[in-house]
Amino acid sequence: MAYKFWRVLCHTNGGDLTWSVDLQEVVFLNGTTVLSTGGVAFADSSFDATTTPDKAFDANTGTSWLTDAGLPCHIGYEHSTDVIVTSVKLQAPYASRAPNEFEIQYSSDGLTWTSTLEGRITSTGWTANEIREFAVTHFDLAGNATNSLGAAVEKVNVFDWNTGQLLRAIVPATNGDWSTTLFSNNQYGVTYLSAGYYPLTHGPYQPA
Ligand SMILES: [Ca+2]
Description:
This protein is an all-beta fold. Helix content is 0%, strand content 46%. The protein has two domains: 3-135, no CATH class; 139-205, Immunoglobulin-like (Sandwich). Strands 1, 5, 7, 9, 10 and 11 form a six-stranded antiparallel beta sheet that branches. Strand 9 and strand 10 (114-115) form a beta hairpin. Calcium ion binds next to loops.
């Protein structure tokens, strides 16, 4: 699944006790495509009117978002459509105000957040104006599963191909569409279950 809301939740910085996090640019990417245009930047606070969160998404290294909050603090972007982020670039004007421990998180509603597989990322020893890029590991597995009568199957089970462990038990939409987000590059199998039919298994699928 893709998500509209993405944010960087900062837990520690490079030591500045007054200005906890200061970012010239936050770039959410899918491959090399910059995703964060046409939507709304947000943060839990801004120091003043010249350091609002949109300043971290304006492709201008001369402007910065500066939090007015202590740690933790966050900055993010509500995209105009659901997006899949494959990496995030951060740039901070001062090493002391760069995030040293943070999480990359996504949300469908801007209220309930989930961290990417990377969890709490540690990145220390920044230099001023340095740009660092952080990969986001996750991918979608999706399909459409109907029986011979055209009805959606009752369940789509996604399992680890190598261990057999059940990972997802998905009830598809009434038209059979289903999707899920998985968080590693393992091999996966998919089994369709529909009453009165033999189970049907496809796989292995391995994300690129
Ligand atoms: Ca900027």
